[in-house]
Design goal:
It is built from nine helices and eight strands. It has helices spanning 15-27, 62-71, 88-96, 98-101, 122-135, 165-168, 171-174, 180-183, 215-241, and strands at residues 2-7, 30-35, 74-82, 85-86, 111-118, 139-147, 188-190, 202-204.
Length: 246
C-alpha cells in the first residue's frame, strides 16, 4: 500500500505541507512526500509526443515523480491559492499528468484527495484540482481546505498597504462578501479608516496562522487519511475475493 503526497507550496514547512503529511501519516501506508518547489517540473508544452508511449519527453524531474505516482495506490495533491488559483508548481504538475492519461488512461482507478490552503478562493481551487484528477480517471476520496497566512502578514508594509489581499477580496471591489474579515478575526483587525485600494489601515493581531493550532482542521486531515486507508483496504479485499471457484 503506497500513497504519495505532492505539495505545490514553495513555503518551507507550510500549512499545505503540514496537512498533506497529516493525511499521509493517517493512512498507515508506505508514503512519499514531494515538494514541487524543490525539484524541476515545468509546464506541458503540447508537443503531443506522449501519444504512443504515455511518456512525457521533457527532460526534467517529472519522469521521476510520475514513476512514483504510477507506483502509488493513492495520491494527495495540495496547493496554496495564488490569485484565486492553484500555484504554478501545482498547475504544471497536473498539466504534465496528461501524458499518463492520454489514450490509455494509465492513472485510471487510482485514489486521490486534494488540499487547498488560502484566504478566500481555496474551495474553488480544491474543486479544480479534484476535477483535473478525476479527468485522469482517478476516484476522488475527498478534499479539504484551510485558511492560511496571507502574504501581506509577512511582507512588511501589510498594515498600511492599500492593495492588501483583504482589500482585493473586499465587498467594495468584488461585489461579494467573501468572508475574509470574519475568517481572520483574532488575526487581523481592519481599522475604521481602511478604504480598499484608496487607504490601507489594519492591525495585525497575530503574524502567522498555523493549522497546527486548529484541532478541527488537523482532525479533518487525519479523517481523510483514514478514509484513503479504508478505501485501499476495501479494494484489496474485493481483489482477494476474485478467486477461481473451479
Amino acid at each position: 500500500m503506497k500513497v504519495i503526497g505532492i505539495s505545490g507550496s514553495p513555503t518551507k514547512d507550510s500549512n499545505t505541507d503540514t496537512l498533506i503529511n497529516a493525511i499521509l501519516d493517517a493512512t498507515g501506508a508506505e508514503t512519499d512526500f514531494v515538494k514541487l518547489s524543490e525539484i524541476n517540473v515545468g509546464p506541458c508544452i503540447a508537443c503531443m509526443k506522449c501519444v504512443d508511449t504515455n511518456e512525457c519527453v521533457i527532460n526534467d524531474h517529472f519522469k521521476w515523480v510520475s514513476k512514483k505516482v504510477m507506483e502509488a495506490d493513492a495520491i494527495v495533491v495540495g496547493s496554496p491559492t495564488y490569485y484565486g488559483a492553484a500555484s504554478a508548481f501545482t498547475k504544471a504538475f497536473i498539466e504534465r499528468l496528461y501524458s499518463k492519461r492520454h489514450v490509455k488512461l494509465q492513472t485510471g482507478g487510482k485514489l486521490a484527495a486534494t488540499v487547498a490552503v488560502g484566504v478566500a478562493a481555496e474551495k474553488m481551487v480544491a474543486e479544480w484540482m479534484g476535477n483535473a484528477l478525476r479527468a485522469g480517471g482517478m476516484e476522488i476520496v475527498g478534499s479539504m481546505t484551510a485558511k492560511g497566512t496571507p502574504c501581506c502578514f509577512v511582507c512588511g508594509p501589510g498594515e498600511t498597504c492599500n492593495y492588501t489581499v483583504w482589500n482585493a477580496y473586499s465587498k467594495e471591489l468584488t461585489g461579494m462578501d467573501l468572508g475574509v474579515e470574519e475568517a481572520y478575526k483574532g488575526y487581523l483587525e481592519l481599522l475604521p479608516d481602511n478604504k480598499p485600494y484608496a487607504h490601507g489601515s489594519a492591525k495585525f493581531l497575530k503574524s502567522y496562522r498555523s493549522v497546527k493550532d486548529e484541532p478541527y482542521v488537523m482532525d479533518e486531515a487525519r479523517r481523510l487519511g483514514k478514509l484513503i486507508k479504508e478505501k485501499i483496504k476495501n479494494r484489496s479485499r474485493k481483489a482477494g475475493d476474485l478467486k477461481c471457484g473451479c
